Amino acid sequence: MQDKPVVVALDFDDKAKALALVDQLDPAQCRLKVGKEMFTLFGPELVRDLVGRGFDVFLDLKFHDIPNTVAKAVVAAAELGVWMVNVHASGGSRMMRAAKEALAPYGDKAPLLIAVTVLTSMTDSELAELGVDADTAQEQVLRLAKLTQQAGLDGVVCSAKEAGLLKSTLGSDFKLVTPGIRPAGSDAGDQRRVLTPMDAIEAGSDFLVIGRPITQAGDPLAVLKAINDSLQG
Ligand SMILES: O=C(O)c1cc(=O)[nH]c(=O)n1[C@@H]1O[C@H](COP(=O)(O)O)[C@@H](O)[C@H]1O
């Protein structure tokens, strides 16, 4: 298992509330994810602040644009000192390769570059609505994950439900970052393809992105601790 597999998704519209949670967290216990809402509201300053506090930050902006634009965007992320950044695999292999090449000058200081395959909120019928020629979400995830690996990226964001298949097909070094994680008994919300933290790790997930079950809990630290303890077996 990876060191510190839990990545807490900081999806807040209130910076003070987010920082009140961050103040209680220890960079030795978890990593943090900043997504579209907080980045749009509070910008790179927030990311610099979190990096400055010693957290590994996953900048989850899911870039999806032409190769030149995405390459420049991932360089901007690297300049912020983030640990991980992501793009949409459906932006294509040329775009993904351009992003990877743009990070080469950062050497081992480059953020991990990850691609989103099929969003964990998507169902098979929603994929069909988009005209995706795959029988199941899983088939499309595998197709996009193979493309991502061929483009030289470090891994993919996927549902833990696909982790076993992806690990056995793509090898143990290819990182699997899995949202849609719900400790037993917690509300799935808008997620459709969910697993518990332990089941996700056993299936082959490297990093567990967990938002509302921690951030909306009465005692977020207790939930994080319970999750970390459950993973220690
Ligand atoms: O890239 C992601 O992190 C992501 C990809 C995906 O397919 N599904 C998904 O839920 N996410 C993110 O993972 C987090 C999940 O949050 P909760 O559903 O609150 O645990 C959110 O910040 C989502 O934006």
> Could you give the order of strands across the largest sheet?
1-2-3-4-5-6-7-8
Q: Into which percentage range does the β-strand content fall?
A: 15-25%
- Cα distance spanning the termini: 11 Å
Globular, elongated, flat, extended or rod-shaped: what is the shape? globular
The CATH architecture: Alpha-Beta Barrel
Mean pLDDT: 94
Ligand names: orotidine-5'-monophosphate
Instruction: Report the strand count.
Output: 8
Largest sheet: 8 strands, parallel, barrel
CATH top-level class: Alpha Beta
Structural class: alpha/beta
User: CATH homologous superfamily, by name?
Assistant: Aldolase class I
Order of helices and strands: EHEHEHEHEHHEHEHEHH
InterPro entries: Aldolase_TIM, OMPdecase, OMPdecase_AS, OMPdecase_bac, OMPdeCOase_dom, RibuloseP-bd_barrel
Organism: Gallaecimonas xiamenensis 3-C-1
GO biological process, one term: 'de novo' UMP biosynthetic process
Domain Orotidine 5'-phosphate decarboxylase: 5-227
Which structural traits does this protein have?
alpha/beta; binds orotidine-5'-monophosphate; eight-stranded parallel barrel; 233 residues; TIM Barrel; single chain; globular
